[in-house]
Amino acid sequence: MEALIETIVTPLVDHPEEIKVNVKEEESKIVYHLTVHNEDVGKVIGKNGRIAKAIRTVVYAAGSDSQKRIYLDIM
Fold first, then answer.
1. How far apart are the first and last CA of the chain?
2. Within a 13 Å sphere around the CA of 44, how many CA atoms are in the beta-carbon half?
3. Which of 22, 37, 49, 66 has CB atoms 3.0–4.6 Å from 33's, for a disulfide?
4. Residue 48 confidence (pLDDT)
5. Is the pLDDT of residue 45 over 90?
6. Mean pLDDT, rounded, for 32-43
7. Which residues form a coiled coil (predicted)?
């Protein structure tokens, strides 16, 4: 899943070397923390959060076969 997130975000940012995805797995959920360069945060979120919502939709769909809820936080 980390590779999927990186693949989606890499073309959007100017500093792809600073993309980091950390995973925190709990009993009932998996949380992915996406960290990008400060200048790229707006590009990943998009106007009114449209790009962030689209990324989350793809990630949630890809993890739909999992028994745990999946969350994506953009730091």
1. 17
2. 26
3. 22
4. 96
5. yes
6. 96
7. none
Question: Rounded CA gap, 32 and 20, in Å?
Answer: 10
Q: Which helix (H) or strand (E) holds 3?
A: helix 2-9
CATH architecture of 2-74: 2-Layer Sandwich (3.30)
User: Average pLDDT over the chain, rounded to whole?
Assistant: 94
DSSP string, 10-66: GGG-S-GGG-EEEEEE-SSEEEEEEE--GGGHHHHH-GGGHHHHHHHHHHHHHTTTS
In angstroms, rounded to a whole number, what is the distance separating the alpha carbons of residues 18 and 38? 10
For 62-71, the pLDDT digits (tens) are 988 888 899 9
